[in-house]
Design a protein that fits this description.
The protein has 251 residues and is α/β, with parallel strands linked by helices. The chain has 5 helices and 9 strands; from the N terminus they run ββαβββαβαββαβα.
Length: 251
C-alpha cells in the first residue's frame, strides 16, 4: 500500500516508503564527493513513489562509492489501470499483477526517452556510457531493463540493476534479436522470496529471458523473508556490485 492512500492501492512497500505525492516531483541528484565524478548511476523509483523516496539510500551508496554520482528521475503522473485509473507517478500503465513480463507497458517508450536523454547526458559528464549503470526499484527497475533492452542501449552500459522488478513486454523482443550478439554487460536482479506484488517467478523468468537473448552475465540474488521491499543484505550486495561494475579509476 502507499502511504496515506487506500489499502487497495499498489505501490512502494519499503523500509522507508514515502508518502504518495500526486505531482511536483523533479529529478534529484546526489553529487560525487570528489570534484569530478568518474561514474554515474541513474536510479528510477517505483510506482506511486518519487525520487525523494530513494534519496536516502542513494546518498548512502554515494558515501561508499565517492567517485559515483546518482541521478534520480521523476516518473510522469498518469492514470494507472491497476489502481482504478487514479493518476499517480508511473513510468507506464500497469493492468494487473499476474504475468508482468507480458505487460504491454503502455507509456514506457515515452518514459524511455527521458531515461535515454539522462543516459546521454551522464555519459557526456563522466566520459562514456560504459561508466553509467541504469538501475531502479520495482517499476523503476523495469524501466532500467526496458531502456537497456527495448531501446538497445545494453551493449553501451556498465551494467543494469533491477531490484524487485522484471523485464516488461518481452513479447516485443524477439528471442535472440536483442542484443545482436553475446553481451558481457553485467545485470543484477535482486528479489525477495516473499514478494507478493512482483512474484519471484517474474525475476526468474526475466533472468531466463535475458539469457535467451544472449545476455550472459545475469546474476539473480534471492532474499529469504523479504517481500516487495529492501533489506540490509541486499543493499550491501548492491554496493559491492556497483563497485565492480563502476570501479574507481582514480590514479
Amino acid at each position: 500500500a502507499l502511504g496515506g492512500v487506500s489499502k487497495t492501492m499498489h505501490g512502494p512497500c519499503r523500509r522507508a516508503a514515502s508518502t504518495f505525492l500526486a505531482s511536483g516531483a523533479s529529478t534529484l541528484e546526489v553529487a560525487s564527493s570528489r570534484s569530478q565524478a568518474s561514474a554515474s548511476v541513474i536510479f528510477g523509483h517505483g510506482l506511486g513513489d518519487t525520487p525523494q523516496g530513494w534519496l536516502w539510500q542513494c546518498q548512502a551508496w554515494a558515501r561508499e562509492l565517492p567517485w559515483v554520482r546518482f541521478v534520480l528521475p521523476a516518473a510522469p503522473v498518469r492514470p494507472v489501470t491497476l489502481n482504478g485509473g487514479l493518476p499517480m507517478p508511473a513510468w507506464y500503465d500497469i493492468y494487473g499483477l499476474d504475468n508482468r513480463l507480458q505487460e504491454p507497458a503502455t507509456g514506457a517508450e515515452e518514459s524511455g526517452a527521458l531515461w535515454t536523454g539522462l543516459l546521454e547526458a551522464e555519459a557526456r559528464a563522466v566520459g562514456s556510457p560504459g561508466r553509467v549503470v541504469l538501475a531502479g526499484f520495482s517499476q523503476g527497475g523495469a524501466m532500467a531493463l526496458f531502456t537497456a533492452l527495448h531501446l538497445n542501449r545494453l551493449p553501451q552500459l556498465a551494467g543494469v540493476l533491477c531490484m524487485s522488478g522484471y523485464l516488461p513486454n518481452t513479447a516485443a523482443l524477439a528471442s535472440g534479436s536483442v542484443p545482436q550478439k553475446k553481451c558481457e554487460v553485467p545485470v543484477l536482479l535482486c528479489h525477495g522470496q516473499l514478494d507478493g506484488m512482483v512474484k519471484l517467478e517474474m525475476a526468474r523468468n526475466t533472468q531466463a529471458a535475458l539469457q535467451g537473448m544472449g545476455v550472459d552475465r545475469v546474476d539473480l540474488r534471492e532474499y529469504e523473508n523479504m517481500g516487495h521491499e529492501v533489506c540490509e543484505d541486499e543493499l550491501d550486495d548492491v554496493a559491492e556490485w556497483l563497485a565492480k561494475a563502476l570501479p574507481d579509476i582514480a590514479t
